[in-house]
TrEMBL record, chain A:
Pfam families: TOP6A-Spo11_Toprim (PF21180), TP6A_N (PF04406)
Keyword Metal-binding part of the UniProt annotation: yes
Enzyme class of the recorded protein, top EC level: isomerase
Catalytic activity, reaction form: ATP-dependent breakage, passage and rejoining of double-stranded DNA
Localization, UniProt: Nucleus
Name of the protein this chain belongs to: DNA topoisomerase (ATP-hydrolyzing)
Domain Topoisomerase 6 subunit A/Spo11 TOPRIM: 210-376
Protein's UniProt keywords contain Transmembrane: no
Assigned EC number: 5.6.2.2
GO biological process: meiotic DNA double-strand break formation; meiotic DNA double-strand break processing; reciprocal meiotic recombination
TrEMBL record, chain B:
GO molecular function term, any single one: protein-macromolecule adaptor activity
Protein name: Type 2 DNA topoisomerase 6 subunit B-like
Matching InterPro entries: MTOPVIB_plant
Gene Ontology BP terms: meiotic DNA double-strand break formation; reciprocal meiotic recombination
GO CC aspect terms: condensed chromosome
Length: 382, 466
């Protein structure tokens, strides 16, 4: 029973710790509460410097949810917490960082603006070089703030600078704008905005039968240039690497709007490729309280070990890097990963090899489209 | 227990030590006199008689039996090993005169009884011990004066001390002058005793750092540790005083001498300045100086004078330490743990009463953070267009509405944070209990608490971290 409850939708409802999508006035109110609480503790008769308690984004605080009927799964964070404290040496700096980002966010909200993570990074880099030295630190601190205030990053006035693009048989219309035909956007496709509000308001129309998620921009370009969607009625989407929230958001919207279209993933045959696919599919703990929100049931089209065995010559395989093995280990340890996926990871580790999608070009530049068509016809996806 | 006398300095220090203890054992107000008398240069050699006399209880001679004469060429040229004693107790009807020859190893031959002197029925007690030393009066006087000046730090209950100098002038007449007078405290009281030590050390620091007499800023902390010790109620007490001397940065750098990175430990045992006991030396090295922002480079023992050398002391800061170990009654043995405890108490006391002093490296870092945090909060509060929020913040901070600007609000927050940091680690345990959440939720489970360290510099994980 315990096992069942840990892995069903009921468990999800009970244990999900989520970030609210709330209007700016409410976010500001939450920040004000945080400031007042801090000042109260500081000015009390028994003064103290209060710690910040945040929902932990540690893997041990992650849970898996499996839909009873649909077979869809996703991961989410439960209610364990960690603290950022001024008085603890190893967290004093991150404690200050949270307050600094909170200040920025508050000012953005007061001015009724939105900034990208990149813009915020440069602002913080100028204002507080002692505390912020990398985009990663900024991104993590934003997630800390999300975990503290329990509202989405977008609600904080911070947009993800989206790298994503979309192409194919899709008509998009932003409010009060012309309709965009994504099949005529050229090889770089239609750039996905980081403004989630705008993405939510897009009206969409399609006659596609499939959505194809492509890991790499180069492959996306090749497929768009070859107008693959003329032969296979599909929509192409890419995050150009590790998925950002806007791309995931849009893919999730597509899935909700067109529930009958299967989403097929085309990624490199290596652990990182599968990790990218899994992030689209299940969410990522790194995305904190928003991890679960935009999970889509992506199927793994390729490359898989059978494709490698049949189509990729030995000389096109490269040895696995230590980083690959590290990712493979974390994938193998995951309870959410289905067995067929784990078998693939095992095959990668055993062979000690990896292959890029580009390896298929040894059969000609136009082979990729043929490959996709064959796989789709054979329904060869996991 | 054997004490080997290896120098003149050691000799007169012991004679004074014994005299002090005899005075402490007496119930009455006592007087202790050290007198240096120079004689005509016989055979061209200077000769000085050191006599230590006290009105304490009479000597039972026990203390002298442990003294041994070290075969040392320098000492042999200065002292013949003879001690003359005259002592009497209240109950005695006469004064006993004795000669003690420390060079004699045979205990029977050491002591020579001389004819006694009658007291003519008068009741009094006291002892006079004298030795003849071949040394220049000026040198000896300088040494003894320096020694007694350190003794001023501790006020011996009900004992008055004086240093007299006399001599045969050319006309053969005796001249005498008083060099040092030390008033004792009127009664024994532990509170008064530690205060005396603090005042004494402050005076000592002022006198010995004349260059710093203007604009100096002395901050002191005191600590006392007691052991309920033996069954006779002879509990041991260790008192410690730590003084921090801050010189205004305006002072010429010539005042900041190299030696100021060092601290001489003024050590007293049973009210007498003496060399630092090994146990107390261990105590000093075992203190976690880092928690006071200090780093000990070395501990040097120069002929019983212990110098602590610091690694990182700012040039405008000097530290002075005095330790006094004594038993309520004589005799005593020092206890390492007590010395450590007392010094720690003194350091903590200093820290508690002087905001921002002796902060540990960790706390100093936190003070830097405090400045940034205060500025951040002040900017956040003042960027608000919600006047109620601003007013509430200001009233919590006690900032008047006409003073609301980023500097005043920031300074106020900063001061509050720093004062909490100054309350030091003792409170940090207290607040460790249950973390509070901004937005309460019944789902939070205490057992889920985990301390997540922030891994700096970890590369962006493309990995799917599940």
């Amino acid at each position: 029973m315990g096992e069942l409850s840990r892995s069903t939708i009921f468990f999800f409802d009970q244990h999900l710790c989520y970030a609210d999508i709330i209007p700016p006035s409410q976010v500001r109110a939450r920040i004000e509460v945080a400031v007042l609480n801090f000042l109260k503790a500081l000015s009390s008769n028994d003064p103290s410097i209060s710690d910040l308690s945040l929902i932990s984004r540690n893997p041990s605080n992650s849970r898996v949810s499996r839909g009873l009927l649909t077979g869809d799964s996703w991961i989410f964070l439960s209610h364990s917490f960690c603290t950022r404290s001024l008085t603890r040496e190893n967290s004093a700096k991150s404690f200050i960082r949270v307050w600094k980002v909170m200040e920025m966010s508050y000012q953005i909200l007061v001015q009724e603006k939105r900034v990208t993570q990149r813009e915020l990074y440069y602002k913080l880099l100028c204002d507080s070089p002692d505390y912020f030295t990398s985009q990663l630190q900024v991104n993590r601190t934003i997630q800390d703030l999300v975990a503290l205030l329990r509202c989405s990053r977008y609600s904080l006035g911070i947009m993800a600078s989206s790298r994503g693009a979309i192409a194919g048989r899709l008509l998009l219309q932003e409010p009060n704008k012309e309709v965009v035909d994504c099949s005529t956007c050229g090889s770089s496709g239609y750039a996905i905005s980081g403004d989630l509000d705008l993405l939510e308001k897009l009206s969409m129309e399609t006659d596609a039968r499939y959505i194809i998620m492509v890991e790499k921009h180069a492959i996306f370009q090749r497929l768009a240039e070859d107008r693959v969607f003329n032969q296979i009625p599909c929509i192409l989407i890419t995050a150009k690497g590790f998925p950002d929230i806007a791309t995931r958001f849009l893919l999730h919207r597509l899935c909700r709007t067109f529930p009958n279209l299967p989403v097929l993933g085309l990624v490199d045959w290596n652990p990182a490729g599968l990790a990218i696919l899994c992030t689209f599919k299940f969410g990522s703990i790194g995305m904190g309280l928003e991890a679960y929100r935009y999970a889509c049931n992506v199927k793994w089209l390729g490359l898989r070990k059978d494709d490698i065995n049949q189509l990729v010559p030995e000389e096109c395989l490269a040895p696995l890097k230590p980083r690959d093995l590290q990712i493979a280990k974390s994938l193998m340890a995951s309870e959410i990963l289905q067995d067929s996926y784990k078998e693939e990871v095992e095959a990668m580790v055993q062979s000690g090899r990896r292959a890029e999608i580009e390896a298929l070009y040894c059969h000609g530049y136009d082979y990729l489209v043929k490959f996709l068509a064959t796989k789709i016809v054979q329904a060869s996806y996991l | 227990m054997e004490i080997e006398i290896s120098s003149v300095k050691m000799l007169y220090r012991h004679l004074i030590f014994f005299a002090v203890q005899r005075c402490r054992m007496s119930d009455d107000l006592c007087r202790l006199t050290v007198k240096l008398t120079s004689f005509s240069h016989r055979f061209g050699l200077p000769l000085v008689r050191i006599s230590v006399s006290d009105t304490g209880v009479g000597s039972k001679l026990e203390e002298y039996q442990y003294l041994k004469y070290r075969d040392d060429l320098v000492l042999a040229n200065q002292w013949d090993g003879m001690i003359s004693l005259a002592t009497t107790s209240v109950s005695d009807s006469e004064i006993h005169n004795l000669n003690l020859n420390l060079k004699e190893s045979n205990s029977a031959g050491r002591l020579t009884k001389l004819p006694s002197t009658t007291k003519n029925g008068v009741k009094f007690s006291g002892t006079e011990v004298s030795v003849s030393i071949s040394k220049s009066l000026d040198d000896l006087l300088a040494e003894v004066t320096c020694f007694l000046q350190k003794m001023i730090l501790v006020k011996i209950p009900k004992v008055v001390m004086e240093l007299l100098v006399g001599g045969d002038d050319l006309l053969g007449a005796q001249t005498e002058s008083r060099i040092v007078t030390i008033e004792g405290s009127s009664v024994y009281s532990p509170v008064e005793s530690i205060k005396c030590l603090e005042v004494g050390l402050k005076d000592y620091v002022r006198k010995h750092h004349t260059c710093l007499s203007i604009g100096e800023n002395l901050k002191g902390g005191t600590g006392v540790a007691n052991s309920s010790g033996s069954s006779h109620g002879n509990s041991q007490v260790v008192e410690a005083v730590v003084i921090i001397n801050e010189i205004s940065e305006l002072f010429p750098s010539s005042c900041m001498r190299e030696q100021d990175m060092r601290t001489e430990i003024l050590y007293f045992k049973d009210f007498v300045h003496c060399s630092v006991a090994q146990s107390s030396l261990d105590a000093l090295t075992s203190i976690n100086w880092k928690s006071y922002g200090l780093a000990l480079r070395s501990v040097a023992d120069h002929d019983g004078c212990v110098i602590l050398e610091w690694e990182n002391l700012p040039p405008h800061l000097h530290i002075h330490i005095a330790i006094h170990c004594y038993h309520r009654q004589y005799p005593s043995l020092p206890d390492r743990n007590l010395a450590r405890k007392a010094v720690k108490c003194a350091l903590d006391d200093l820290k508690e009463n002087n905001q921002g002093v002796l902060l540990s490296t960790r706390e100093l870092k936190m003070c830097d953070y405090a400045l940034d945090l205060a500025k951040t909060l002040a900017r956040l509060i003042l960027s608000s267009n919600d006047l109620n929020f601003q007013e509430e913040c200001c009233s919590l901070l006690g900032v008047q509405s006409q003073e609301v600007n980023p500097d005043s609000v920031g300074n106020c927050i900063r001061e509050k944070i720093i004062s909490v940091i100054g309350l030091n680690d003792r409170n940090s345990q207290k607040h460790k209990e249950a973390p509070s959440f901004l937005f309460e939720d019944d789902c939070f489970r205490k057992e889920d608490f985990m301390d997540e360290d922030y891994q700096e510099g970890e590369e962006a994980y493309i990995s799917w971290d599940m």
